[in-house]
Known about the structure:
The protein has helices at residues 60-71, 81-88, 95-113, 117-121, 140-153, 168-178, 196-199, 219-228, 242-251, 261-264, 267-279, 293-302, 350-356; strands at 5-21, 24-37, 42-47, 127-129, 131-134, 157-161, 183-186, 210-211, 233-235, 256-259, 284-286, 335-337, 357-364. By secondary structure, it is an alpha/beta fold. Residues 55, 133, 186, 188, 236, 287-290, 313, 315 line the site of 2-succinylbenzoate.
Amino acid sequence: xxxxxxxxxxxxxxxxxxxxxxxxxxxxxxxxxxxxxxxxxxxxxxxxxxxxxxxxxxxxxxxxxxxxxxxxxxxxxxxxxxxxxxxxxxxxxxxxxxxxxxxxxxxxxxxxxxxxxxxxxxxxxxxxxxxxxxxxxxxxxxxxxxxxxxxxxxxxxxxxxxxxxxxxxxxxxxxxxxxxxxxxxxxxxxxxxxxxxxxxxxxxxxxxxxxxxxxxxxxxxxxxxxxxxxxxxxxxxxxxxxxxxxxxxxxxxxxxxxxxxxxxxxxxxxxxxxxxxxxxxxxxxxxxxxxxxxxxxxxxxxxxxxxxxxxxxxxxxxxxxxxxxxxxxxxxxxxxxxxxxxxxxxxxxxxxxxxxxxxxxxxxx
Length: 365
Ligand code: OSB
Ligand code: MG
C-alpha cells in the first residue's frame, strides 16, 4: 500500500455535559483527525491528545505538528501498519501522534483487505459490556442523579473521578444509595504517597480498583501504596508501553491495567500490553479519551479481546455527544456492539465533520 496524501483536521465537538477531572474541565472534544488516502482505500485515525498537556505531556496541536513534520515523511513508499510502526520508532516519544497516524494506516489497510479491526486484533466477542466514567460534580446530589441516570440506561460499571476534597464522601454516598454495583475510582495522578492513609479509607467500599492515584513516573510509589491498601491499584497514565506494563507488574505497582492505544503508541502496542498482562494473569480493560465514533470504533474492537475481562470506558455515543461523527454507538442491554465491517466498520459523516472542523490541511507524503 502506498499513501498518496494525508488530511489533518482539527475538530471541536461539544460534549453534552462538561467533563471535569482532577486535571481540568472539558466542554468539547477538541481533537485532531487523520485521514490517509491510498489508491485502494482511505483510512481514519483519531488522536487522543487533549488541547493542553494536562493528562499527558502530549497536546493536540503538538501532535499535529509531529505527524506532519516528522512522522509522515517516514511513510513514503510501500507501507503497512507494521512497517509504519517500525519506521515511526525513529521518533522518540509522541505516542499519541504515532497512534493516530498508525490507526489511519491500519484502517486503510484493513478496508482494502475487507477485514475488520476486531478480527485483525483478535477479538473473541461481538459485543462488550459498557462502563461509564463520571466526572467531578459541584454537589453530591448532582452526582447521585447522574449515576442514577446511567444505571437506568444499563451501564454495567460506574467509575467516579476523584481528587482531594472529592473522594471518600462521594464514594460513600454512591455506595449507600446504589448498593453493590460495580464501582471504581480514577484520580488522574492527583495524590502523593503521603496520602496513603487517606486513600486507604476507600478500602471500606469494596471498589473494583483505584486508577492512577499517584504521578505518572511514580511506579515505586504505587508499589508502596499497594502494600498499604486492599483496593487493587490500576495504572493508566504510567502504562506507556508493553515494557512499562511488564515493569509495573513486576514491581507490584499495578494489579489491573487500563489499556489506551493512544497512550502506548498505537493498536499494535496496545495488543502487546494486553498480551503481557494476560501472560501475567493481570486483567485489563479499555480506557477512553472521550473519543468520537472514529476512535470509539477501534477501542470497542480492542475491548473484545479475551484479556479484557472488566467493563471499559466504552460508553455509547450519547453519553458524550448529541450527534456523533459516525453512526452512533448505542447501548443494548448494557453492551456496545463491535463493528463488523471492513476497517473501523464506521463511516464518517463528511457534512457533519465539515461543520465541526476548525482547521484542516492536506499533506503530501
Ligand atoms: O483518565 O481515563 C481517564 C477522559 C479523558 C482523559 C483521561 C481519562 C478520561 C476518562 C473518560 O476517564 C473516559 C471516557 O472516554 O469515557
Ligand atoms: Mg484514567
